[in-house]
Each structure stands twice: as C-alpha cells, then as structure tokens.
Amino acid sequence: MVVTMSLLMALVGWTTIGFDVPQTGAAPEVDAGAALVISGSTGEIIYDYHSERKLTISGPEKIMAAMVFVDKIENEEDYQKKVKVPREAAKRGDMFEKDEEVTVEALLYAMLLQDSDEAAITLAIHFCGSHEQAVAEMNAKTQKLRLLETRFHNVTGGFNTEQYSTARDVSVIFSAAMRYDKIYKIMGSTTYTLPKTNKHGARTIMTTNPLQFDGISYSGSYYGIKGISNVYDGKSGYIGTAWVDDMNIIVIMLVEPPGSTSIDAKALFNYGFSNVTKKVIVKKDREEGKVKVRGGIKTRVPVYTARKGYVYIPREGSDELVTTQVELYHGVRAPLTAGDKVGEYVIYVAGERKGAVDLVVKEDVPVGWYPSYIYISNNATIAIGSILAIVLILMLWNAIASRKRARERAARRKEKIRQEALRQKELEDDRMRRNWTYSGTYTYTTDNRDRRE
Prior knowledge:
By secondary structure, the protein is of the alpha+beta class. The chain has eleven helices and 21 strands.
C-alpha cells in the first residue's frame, strides 16, 4: 500500500465576481468509482458522480486524525514539544527512527505533507494514548460532523474493508479540516524543513502530490494543486483544491485508476471553474470593524476581508436567504503581522453556514507597553499620561497658589492685628499725653475735690 497525501489551501475562502456563469461544455467522464466537484467558497455542487456511493478509502484518515490531534493542542508552545518515536511507529517506514525526538509540528508536517505513517502513529500514541484510542476519537468526530457513511479503522490509510466513506462525506471532512489554521497552513505548503533531531540533521521534505508541479493555470492565476493519492488493489483516490480570482474549487475522486488521476483531475478542475456560480457577497479589502488586541502598541486594529466572497443561491431561493456575520477572535494577542487572520466574515444561506472569508489585519502590531495588557494602547497611555501630568501640574500649581494665598491671608491678618495694636497704642499714648484716665466709671475722689478747691 502506497499512500500519497497533501492538499492546497482550501475552504474558508468566499470570493466574488458579481455575475453568474452559465454551465458550459459537457460534463467530463472520469474513470473514478465516485467523483465530486464543489465550490469550497459556497458549497455549490458543480459535478456529482455517485458521490453517495460508499467505497473503501485510504487517505482521508490522516486529515481526520490531524483534526483530532490539533483539538488537543492548547497553545503554540505545544507544537514545539518533542515526542519520542516509539518502536511501533518507527517500523512503519524509514523517515524516523526509534526514540528519535521530533517536535509535534514536524510530525504533523511529515504526516500531512509526505503521508508519513510513522508520524501518524507517533502522534496517535502521544495525544490519545494508543493507536486504537485515536481511531475511536476519529470515529467520534465523524459522528459530530454527522457523517453516517464514514468509518475509520486506522490512522495510516492501510487498506481495510472496515474503513470506508463517500465522496460527499470526504468533502465535509476536508472542508472541516481547512478551518484549522495550522492544518490549512501545512496543507498549503510545498516543502518543509524538519528540524535537527537526536538522530538526524535538518532535512527538507516535499509534497508528494502528483499535480503539484504540473503547472496548471487558470485565467492567468496559478495555484498549486495538492491531493491525496492512495493506491490499493490498483486503484487510487484524489483530493485537490485550487483558487482562481478567490473562487475555490475542490475536486474529490475515489477508486481511481492511478494512470488516470492527473488527466481526470485537470478535466474536473477546468469544468468546475467554467461552471461555478459566481455571485458577489463581499469584496476584497473591505473593512469589517476592529479587533481587540491584547498587549499591542495598538489595542483596536481594523480588519479587512482577505479575498472576495461568493455565494450560491439555489434557483428556488432568493437573495433574502443570505445573511452574513462578522466573527472576530477573542483573546488576540500581540505581536501581529500584516496578513494575520483574526476572524471570519461568515456567510449563511437559509440559516446554514455556507462559507467564510478570512478577516485579516493589514498592519504589524508590535508588543506594546505594560498598560496594553489591559487594552490601553501606547497612544492612549501617552494621552492618559499627558492628562495626568497636566492634572498633577494643575494640582501642584493650585496647592502652591493656595499656600501662597493662605500665607498672604495670614500676613494680612497679622498686619491688621499689628495695625490695630498700633492704633490702640497711639490712643493710649494720646491719653497719656492728655493725662486721661479711664476706668469704665467716674469715681469722686478727694484728689478731685482738692483739685476743685
């Protein structure tokens, strides 16, 4: 069993042109047991060939496993934790050795970019305790996604009749995985350098997707195409995605003869881009509010749509069925780099989520001063500091002025008392000069009688 895996940046993008394109050309005939072409931007089904047929699969299991693993990661530091490759995993290939210490991030890249079975089993044991428990959690997530025609038996893609799905279910799994930023980034890569370990030096791995380097172009815009090709009993499968003018098309083929994969995939992509409905719902670079940023020099930063947003409305529907909602992430922390995703512009048709446009910042936001951790920006800190400084200066000036006025009042009171004392003294002196006496009442004395005589 040979499994080739990877995917290109998909889903989550809703794009816009502003008109509908009528179906052109006959639908291609493919050799696959089942095939599906959908718009990852709107959910529109463009081509359907036995998409509900239940078939044995090998490939989507690593996408589902990646979601189970990433669900258990709490922060970016967890991606840099080193994990020892167990014997059970090391014997599944030659990329990693027993007891080799590899970061979680490197194992995810190895699993999704080069379809490493060793990486898949190592992560299963690390996050879930055992291979069997990881499979159980994958099936539990399948139920949460309401996929009734899908069941997993392993995380490696090994052929097993108890591991099956449909093209329709695989499209749901793929679309759900693309909402994970880390998985989205990994599947959009063509190469990755595995960091140095205790067993090997740094190594560069490349995507093994058969169409990645075929040079497919659409309307002058080129987007690499990735996919999963899984060979068992002479058959293979393919999942790929491409973008043109912000419209995303996803192609899924199950039980496809290996020699026909590239030809059929190209035909389906061409058909998809020629026949997809394109109705504008939001333009690229439109401002959609501001996101709160903790710890940045700015704590409220404008957000913009990263691409156009398309919508597909069934013929029996109306534009009134379309609603949109801006969903900004909580707990966004600095530093931010221009282009970082901080939310989504979600599009609903009849209350059902049909897609979303990434909301991104257009400026770098470095780490700010300490007050920024309580959402006070550097400029606000300067403004507040300036106001406080002015208030403090005014308070000091008022205090000084008050003390000065108090001293002046005290001096005036003192002077008034002194002046009053001087007047009293002058009166006393004047009485003394006139030989005046005053005792409050007139008293007749002998001295007075003698003086009259």
